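Quarterly update from the structural biology core.
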Amino acid sequence: MNFKSRKRTIQIFILFTLSFMCIIYSLIMKSYHITFSGFFFLLGILFCVFGFVKLKPLSFIKSNFLRKTIKITYRFILGCFIISVFVIEGLILSSAWEKNISKPDYIVVLGAGLWGKTPSQILQQRLDASIDIINKYPDVKVILSGGQGPGEDISEAESMKLYLVNKGISEDRLLLEQKSTSTLENLTFSSDLIRKTYNKNNFKITIVTSNFHMYRAQLISKRLGISSYGYSADIANYLKPTYFTREYFALVKSIIFDKPIHIAPAEVGTKVDSYKGVNVYNNGKDYSQNNGKNYSKDGYYYGYKWQCVEFIKRFYYEANGHKMPDVYGNAKDFFDTNIKQGGFNKNRGLYQYKNGDN
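Predicted structure, tokenized:
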């Protein structure tokens, strides 16, 4: 056997071995309900086809010129693809293990899939990683970002909240962004929520996401003009081939297609959040605007839609069944300065305390 024949035999063996490994790996991933498993099955078939082509070269093509053109084209495309894989995967790996513990203004945890109401393994690993940085800065608010996808019983943000609260994180620190369905929307809608909720335009966030996803998340953040740190979560070793391969295609798509999204101002009366099951509605830019009065079904007066006083009275009533004896007055009228600390306010039916006291 000459050198050329030996080389072809080795190439055929490698192609069929890769084909077998890809098909077996795809079946294992399918058993774990990993959606990208089909890619490795197709890749295995492709390696198999290349193997058979090597076994039976293009001798059936009689034109020498055509045969050479096909070979040159094939090698050129394959070469470009291999170079792009090294470049793109290099970029992905450059941020994969970033764990920046600098203090941000806000922490943004990016969602992933759910199994019904339960975080998937990838999302659970993100949440476990987020707990470290959340506990390190107890005064920093946390944005949980993720909408509701196919096969999910609740939004990813709601599932993340339940998980973190169960791990001892205070619900008061958590703000939910429940509309996003992509990384671009995650960061666009989360930053918009920060601006509207906290009236801030210049802020720095820490993005918590999986290691394979960190480079793309920070790339999009930069495109949106959001200053960010990264705090990555590792994933199980057996998942790395799947997710780092899938991220190659996701990053190429993001580089080409992901552009900043324009968000139209929310209409007055649009739900923007909820707290303990009580909805919070947008009141518009003009807080003095009169949008009509709001009453409970049994006629209890909440106040003018959708002002702060209206929410406070509606919250106490819907969450705790409490009706204030005196429902009238602005926010400044609720606190009676003549009552001692911890004293009972008869007009509101509540014990009153100054901010920061128990």
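The mean pLDDT is 88.
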